[in-house]
Design goal:
The structure holds two protein chains of two kinds. Chain A is of the alpha/beta class. Chain A has nine helices and 16 strands. Classes of the chains: A alpha/beta, B alpha+beta.
């Protein structure tokens, strides 16, 4: 496994280490200095604000959807500020539309920059997808063809985002329901190339990997092994719903509305056996259960990571070149 | 020439909101199954997630007509007026007007105004933060004699009002478990002030003229003139009551005399 020469370590004037990344355009970006703890985290839901502050649950970090906090004031900022004082934070965007054919929305990038400045998250991530077109926002993560034109556009968008936000971002592999005839490379190859060209990290969504592979007749373990695992900065786990396509073959839907499937836990176990413990988010956005249920899932993820504490090929965050 | 990707995404985008549109070309499935079933997943994700967002913002509106009716009505609205914002808390501002013109909802004539009240609550919830002015400052300002009419009152960013021909405050409160819904006369006109005090969004019943008074001071009109506007609207407008209400609910953030304070 080779590490691109464009990621390297530097020491600033107060002696703390920082990572730098150089994109193909020659621009330098300092990486987010603090990485997420190699523990399980959960999504921050407004119905759990008070319970978190009252009970201080033992959880590695919280993740927020950036767009939910793009509001002027009120309880969301009040509680996030208090929770951020106690926990590491992962900022996860759903609306930047990195795979969009149109230019990135610079106002939206500005709003992300404000959130990063205010809450100093340990990681920022977005999706390999598009979510809006023209003046319309679809609130869904829509697929892109994997060809050289898309590759150039996605890399330009990631360069622009990393430069504007002043940090390295993690790109999440998508869940998809069909493929494009125009694609000239596989998704894993596309992601490898994006990571190589932009120096961004990978948010490995194991559920998305499983959902997409079942939906396209691929083997999920093979697909995951083809991804640039050295660049993983965070893992996502979630539940899916089962449906069928027009031929009666299984069609899995990335619903974030139920517990993590056993097949996904098995893949997660194999990934952590290679990478060692890794910041791992349990995602639940629909049918949100009580906090205790989410914490149980987080504890299960940590108990699976524990035996692999000595393992690890290292990640882009920790390996020097 | 239009960029090929822009064109393709535009075509794809069109099919997402139109269930009758044919499947765009260039789509492949591993088992050669009809891609329309797979496109349907995206169509459903888009429309149902946006309906869910509306259901979060308009819970009492949904209770008044039931979830099935609400979701059917919302699905038409979503396809007709999809969000232009990526911040879904801001989505739905045009929903009350849509409801007003939605013929099947005419049997619940106050539905649109309840939706207006609920949109105002969500806006207040996420509005900017500001410290309310203290009672001492208000007391001093109101004791300023003849200068009192010149005072400018600044409302908290969360403050808004909704006026209605219907009993929107009583109806809304009954759906929060306050009061007996069976005793509410929906045809009794009520107006509401919506404001956030601390972390809580309040819905406060306004006396006649008070909504016009708040509107006037929010537009920067001096206290005396604002009171005049309110009296013109409602002869029995009670200025003391209106000021007390704003003060009690932390709805004022500053009071000042233009130009004279610095001299």
């Amino acid at each position: 496994m080779t590490l691109p020469a464009r990621i390297f370590q530097a020491t600033d004037d107060v002696g703390s280490m920082a990572w730098h990344v150089q994109s193909d355009t020659g621009r330098m970006h300092e990486l987010v200095r603090a990485s997420l703890p190699a523990r399980a985290g959960i999504g921050l839901k407004s119905q759990h604000f008070r319970a978190i502050l009252d009970t201080n649950p033992d959880v590695g970090f919280f993740e927020i959807h950036a767009e939910n906090y793009m509001v002027a004031g009120g309880p969301y900022h009040h509680y996030l500020g208090l929770i951020r004082e106690r926990y590491a934070l992962s900022l996860h965007g759903v609306g930047l539309s990195i795979g969009g054919a149109a230019p990135l929305d610079v106002a939206h990038l500005g709003r992300l920059a404000s959130l990063i400045d205010r809450y100093q998250p340990a990681a920022f991530s977005e999706h390999l997808a598009w979510s809006g077109h023209g003046d319309t926002y679809f609130n869904d993560l829509l697929p892109v063809p994997y060809d050289t034109d898309t590759l150039t556009r996605v890399c330009n968008h990631i360069d622009q985002a990393q430069e504007r936000l002043g940090c390295r971002m993690l790109l999440e592999n998508p869940s998809t329901y069909f493929e494009f005839t125009r694609s000239t490379m596989g998704e894993a190859q596309f992601v490898c190339e994006v990571v190589r060209r932009t120096g961004c990290g990978l948010l490995l969504d194991v559920n998305n990997a499983y959902v997409s592979c079942v939906n396209h007749g691929h083997d999920a373990q093979t697909y995951i092994n083809e991804l640039p695992l050295w660049a993983v900065g965070e893992i996502h786990l979630a539940g899916f719903a089962r449906d069928c396509d027009a031929k009666g073959d299984p069609l899995l839907i990335d619903s974030h509305g139920c517990a993590v499937d056993e097949a996904v836990w098995t893949l997660f176990d194999a990934v952590t056996a290679r990478l060692g413990p890794m910041a791992t988010l349990l995602e639940r956005d629909n049918n949100v259960p009580p906090l205790a249920t989410l914490l149980d899932e987080a504890h299960r993820a940590e108990s699976l990571m524990q035996p692999h504490a000595a393992a690890g090929i290292g990640t882009g965050w920790r390996v020097t070149s | 020439m239009m960029d090929l990707h822009v064109y393709e995404q535009a075509l794809f985008a069109l099919t997402l909101l139109n269930p009758e549109a044919p499947c765009p070309s260039g789509i492949r499935t591993w088992n050669d199954s009809d891609p329309i079933a797979r496109l349907a997943v995206y169509r459903n994700n888009v429309v149902s997630s946006l309906i869910d967002a509306l259901a979060d913002t308009f819970p009492v509106t949904q209770e008044l007509v039931g979830p099935e009716f609400f979701r059917a009505m919302a699905s038409i609205f979503v396809r007709q007026s999809p969000p232009s914002t990526r911040v879904l808390a801001q989505y739905g501002g045009a929903f009350p007007v849509f409801i007003e013109g939605f013929a099947p909802a005419q049997s619940v004539p106050y539905l649109a105004d309840i939706a207006r009240l609920e949109m105002a609550r969500v806006r207040a919830y996420h509005a900017g933060d500001a410290e309310p002015v203290s009672r001492d400052v208000v007391g001093l300002a109101l004791a300023s004699g003849e200068q009192m009419a010149e005072l400018r009152l600044v409302c908290h960013p969360s403050v808004s009002f909704v006026t209605s021909k219907f009993a929107i405050v009583s109806l809304w409160a009954a759906h929060q478990g306050e009061g007996d819904l069976g005793l509410v006369d929906p045809y009794c006109a009520e107006s509401a002030m919506v404001a956030r005090q601390g972390l809580d969004v309040l819905v406060v019943l306004l006396q006649p003229g008070a909504a016009e008074f708040i509107a006037a001071i929010q537009s920067g009109i001096a206290l005396g003139e604002a009171a005049g506007i309110a009296v013109h609207t409602a002869g029995n407008f009670d200025l003391t009551h209106a000021l007390g209400l704003l003060m009690t609910h932390g709805a004022l953030t500053s009071i000042h005399l233009p130009q004279r304070l610095d001299s």
